[in-house]
Amino acid sequence: MKIALIANYRPDQSYSMHGYAAMLGQGLRGRGHDVETVHPPIVFGRVANDHRPFAKWFGYIDKYLFGISSLRRKIRRFDPDIVHVCDHSNSMYLRSAGDKPRVITCHDLIAVNTARGRYPGLSTRLTGRIQQRWIARGLVQAPHVICDSQKTASDFRLNFPNSRADIRVIYLGLREGFSVRSTAEIRAALTALGLSTETPYLLHVGHNGWYKNRLGAMRIYANLRQFPEFQSVMLVMVGRAWTAPMHAFCGQSKLRNWVAEVRNTSDSILSALYSGAEALLFPSLEEGFGWPMVEAQACGCPVITTNRPPMTEIAGEAAILIDPSNPCLAAQTIREQWPRRAEVREAGFRNLKRFSPHAMLDACCSAYESIIAAKC
Question: What is the number of other CB atoms lying within 10 angstroms of the CB of residue 90?
Answer without folding.
Answer: 24
